[in-house]
Amino acid sequence: MFALVDVNNMYVSCERVFRPSLIGKPVVVLSNNDSACVARSNEAKDLGVKMAQPWFQVRHLEREAGLVALSANFELYGDMSSRMMTLVAQYAPRQEVYSIDECFLDFAGVPGDMVAVGREIRARVLQWTGLPTSIGFGPTKTLAKLANHVAKMADRKPGRYDACHAQVCNLGALDSAALDAVFTASDVGDVWGIGRKLSARLNEGGIRTVHDLVRADVATLRAQFSVVLEKTLLELRGTACLDVDHEPAAQQQMMCSRSFGEPVTTLASLIEVVSQFASRVAEKARQQQAAACAVHVFITTSPYRRDDRQHSQSVTLPLVRASADTRVIVAMAVHAVQQMYRPGFEYAKAGVMLVDLRPQGQQQGELDLFGTGEVADSAEPSRLMEAIDTLNQRFGRGAVQVASAQHQPRNGQHAGKQQRRSPRYTTRLGEIATARA
DNA sequence: TCTGGGGTCCTAGGACCC
DNA sequence: TCTGGGGTCCTAGGACCC
What we know:
Blueprint: E1 2-7, H1 10-18, E2 27-30, E3 37-40, H2 42-46, H3 55-58, H4 61-65, E4 68-71, H5 74-89, E5 94-99, E6 102-106, H6 114-129, E7 133-138, H7 141-156, E8 168-170, H8 176-185, H9 196-204, H10 210-214, H11 218-224, H12 227-236, E9 254-264, H13 267-287, E10 290-301, E11 312-323, H14 326-340, E12 347-359, H15 383-395
Parallel strand pairs: 2-4, 7-8
Antiparallel strand pairs: 1-6, 1-7, 2-3, 5-6, 9-12, 10-11, 10-12
Helix pairs in contact: 5-6, 11-12, 13-14
The chain binds a DNA duplex through residues 10, 30-38, 51-57, 59, 72, 98-102, 192-198, 226-228, 251-259, 261-262, 302-305, 316, 348, 351.
């Protein structure tokens, strides 16, 4: 038996823990530059705010409907997440942290009434962290996911899922008639792994509900679509194809990318931003004791500005030796930008990705073909980088950086507008909440 | 004026090999 | 005139997830 524990509207719920006055109000959390809505309270969803919808499109709701918008405070969400995960982990032999706000639990061999266990987890997490969760149980991960969806919707759309209680739902406990009713009330698009495109294609073929899908022919579906959908179908029928991944493999790639606050037109500015992204991603790699074998860089104009001339390009530059050294990564990124940059375009976004990551210290040595004796040992994390990381940790990001990433105070662009960010209550002493008598 | 930022996996097709 | 077949590896692109 698997469970999926998921925080309801995670970012909004984190904000509400420290500002209870936001409970019951429509709230959204905005992305970088306060540009798009990346989290919505139920009340905001009811107002019609869509995921990733640009803020300027819904801004009028601020006055018209009392919509509250906050800048993302990832430091706070990350810390709340680790508290929640630690707490939840105690309830099952194995846990897979699947994202910042959800985890799978493997209850294999654990006896007892799962719904009761779910209620206990939910109550404990709510009391100890203040975060509301929904919990779904099922004999496969895909069914646990669907159960979680049902647990959420049972509350939001009364009457749709009669067989299930709000917040905690165990699909494994339903008889076949009740399960059928759940499947009939669920769209294929509600299933984990079936997105917009796949939904549309399935609908064209007359497969609209989960009920339609589970009755479809496996071989036909596999031939027409892919092995991914085949696995999904088997999982929905109760055959587990996916296991709880207790120790996920190390990341294969990592990225730092961002849209700019204002368009960037000059090579100098582009070099500056990309140097910052390169520095940031190199630091991330060092934190995970990883080193990259290649650096991938992209720059692009805004596809939304139809009247602008468009230019999108990317380039991947291999490294002779795997590295997470800021100087190396920045040098490659700058080189890439110099190759790609074209004057006369308004660039809107760029990114630096480290690919083909491997554990630091396990890099392939170089053959000393010419007998020069100049082959270095596999790179140890350099003391300079360690010193930089320590300083930046103590004095704040950007305290020490490479010269090309030095932010020139021109108009304050791409500094990242974050005008509505709440205090980092749990990770900065200076921003801790104050109680008033 | 203003349009998220991360990740993973699979497939198709080309290069190359014998 | 007639232009193999099976395999691997790599990359780009597209789908999905949150």
